[in-house]
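Germin-like protein
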Amino acid sequence: MLLIVFLFALIFSSSSHAADFCVAKLKGAGSPAGYSCRMPSRVTVDDFVFTGLGVAGNTTNIINAAVTPAFVQQFPGVNGLGLSIARLDLAPAGVIPMHTHPGGSELLYVVEGKITAGFISSSANVVYVKTLGKGDVMVFPRGLLHFQVNAGENNAVGVVSFSDPDPGLQITDFAFFANDLSSELLEKTTFLDDAQVKKLKKVLGGTG
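Structure:
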């Protein structure tokens, strides 16, 4: 009898604490642990579907490239699942500048065109670069500086997946020159001269 009671208690405990998913409740700030869960009664199938990757991004900009993200903010169903996805569009001469994702590793799949991609190791600054063709895949370890450049004469398209629903993004050039950090400090910390720093600040919208 005690064994039966114990089994019922175990089953009830497991079912009451288990959750199949945690669709993000996007109102309010997220945290490193993710967003809080929406009530199951408010979840619909549309929370698990994202349709934006079939549309090319607008590459008319300074980098001739576009990223269409399906991170937790755009795709609430990935909250807590340890994954997300995005589309890369690179026009001729397009580039995704040197950047990092502090929250997750990245996997690039080339859908169309040629993309030269690479990353830099943190231990010895070793550079790993490869020109990828249609169907090729390359991985970029979490937190490492990496980039993608259109290596052909036509548009290139890639799909990137991440090991986190909100991998984060910091583009090095914008981090340096699209803020109000003084030119004097930038010159000292980057070894660039005053003219170069001010030129880059002007191009990228920085001040100081």
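Helices lie at 2-17, 172-177, 183-190, 194-204.
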